[in-house]
Amino acid sequence: MVAYKTKMVERISLPAREQREQNLESAGYNAFNLDADDVFVDLLTDSGTGAMSDAQWAALVRGDEAYAGSRSFDELESAVGDVMGFDHVVPAHQGRGAENVLYGALLEEGDVVPNNTHFDTTRAHVANQGADPVDCPVPSAHDPDVTAPFKGNFSLERGRELVDEVGADSVPVVVQTITNNSAAGQPVSVENTRRVRAFADEIDARFVIDACRFAENAYFVKQREEEFAAASIAEIAHEQLGYADAVVMSGKKDGLVNAGGFVATDDARLYERSRQRAILYEGFPTYGGMAGRDVAALAVGLREAVDSEYLADRIEQIEEFGSLLEAAGVPIYRPVGGHAVYLDAGAALSHLPDEAFPGQALVCELYREGGVRGVELGSFAFPDTDRPELVRLAVPRRTYHREHFEHVADTVEAVLEKGESVPGLELATEPEMPEIRHFTAELEPLS
Ligand code: F0G
Predict the structure, then answer these.
(1) Closest alpha carbon to 258 in 52, 118, 83, 403
(2) For 95-134, how does the pLDDT look when each residue is reduced to its tens digit (9 = 90+)?
C-alpha cells in the first residue's frame, strides 16, 4: 500500500536513441561513466539516492552546525538509542568511514575476519588493516533459483571450518551483514544472529553487525520468522542488533539520508578507541564528517526507517518490480531481496560466455534501449570468483513509482527480443586494482 504523496519533483527525461548510443560509447560501455542527467531511471544504487521526508527537510534547516556539542548530535544519539538500542555513537561521513574507524580499532595484521558476505568496502577496510576477509555465506546464497526465507544467513559450518583452519586466536571479530547486499540483498534471521553471537563467544571474538539495511531486514524477519510475527519492527531491530558488540552503519541506506554513517556500541572501551580514530579520520565526535544538518536529518530518518507502513510500501514495491520483470521474461534471483531486484544475466543472455561479460552486456542494453542504469555484479565486477552473472537494479527509497518500473520492464522485454544479436564485451582499459575495476574500466563491444 502506497504510503506517500509528492511535495517536490525532479525533472527527468529520456535522451533520443542516437544520443544514448553516443553516450554509451563515450562512457566506454561502463554505466558508472554516464552523466546522471542522461539517465532516465537510475537504479545504480539505493545508497544516498532516496527522497527525504518533509520532516527531514525541516530538521535539516534546524541543524546545529556547532563544531563541538551540537544539538543535532544529541538528537542522533537519542535516535540510535531508541531505534537500535546503543548508548554510544561515533558519527562518520558515510558507511566506509565508520568501517575505517571501527575495523582500525579492532583488527591487527594477520587477523582473519569471517562475514556472511563482505560488502566491497568492508572487504577493503579489513584488508587495509592487514587482515584477511573471509566470506561465509550459506550454500544457497549464490543460487538464483533456491527459494528459502533467509538466504542471507551466515554459515556457522563454514565459520567453524575456518576457525579449525586458522585457529581461534586469529579471529578477533566475526561480522554479519544485514541484509546481505552481496548475496542479492537476502535477509538474515534473528535465530542466525543468535547463533553467530554464540559462535563469537565460543572463540572469544567480538561480534559486529553491518546494519546498513537493518530495518528492511527486520521487515523480512516479521514476515518470515514465526517467533517474530507479532513483534514490532522496532522490537525486532532491538533484539537482532542487541546481540552485537558494535554496529557499523551507512545512513545512506536505512538512515534515509543522502550522506552520513556511524559506529554504535555499548562497550565503553571500544567507544573510546573508535572516538579517537574518528577524530583522526572523520572529524570531532559530535559531527564526524557530516554537516550538522545532515546529522539532524539522519536522526529523523532512522526513526522513519522502522515505521512499518513505510517498510511495507518499500518491500512490496520491490517485490512488485520483480514480478513485472519476470512477466517481461527475464529470469531473476528469487526470492527478491530488500533493496534491489537482481537479473540473472547468464540465463537471459545465454549465448554469451562469462568471458564476454553477459552482465555488463545487459547493463549496456538496458541503457541503450530505455535509458535505464543498473550495475553488473558478475565476472566484470568480481574477476576470478565463481559468482553468478547478476545485474542489480537497486531501488532508491521513496523515489520511483509503478510507471518507472513498467518502463524498466518494457525495456527488458525489448532487450530480450534482440536475442543473440546482443554483443558481448571485452576490456579496453584495465585499472591497476582489478578488485575495483568495474567503477572505471572501459570496454568495447565484441564484433
Ligand atoms: N556495507 C554495506 C552492506 C553496503 O551495502 C555499503 C554500501 C557499505 C557498507 C558502505 O557504505 O557507501 O555509505 O560508504 N553500499 C552501496 C551499494 C554503495 O551500492 O550497495 P557507504
Answers:
(1) 52
(2) 999 999 999 999 999 999 999 999 999 999 999 999 999 9
Ligand 1 center from residue 259 Cα (angstroms): 11
Class of domain 17-39+308-445: alpha beta
**C-alpha grid cell for residue 200?**
563469537
Task: Give the three-state DSSP class for 342.
Answer: strand
Cell reading at 257: 539520508
Nearest CA to ligand 1 atom 10: 95
Q: Is the domain defined by 54-305 classed in CATH 3.40.640.10?
A: yes
pLDDT band at 245 (very low <50, low <70, confident <90, very high): very high
d(CA 291, CA 249): 17
In ligand 1, the atom with minimum distance to the C-alpha of 213 is: 3
What is the torsional sign of CA 145, 148, 153, 154? Answer: negative
47 lines ligand 1 (CB under 6 A): yes
The ranges assigned to domains in the chain are 17-39+308-445, 54-305
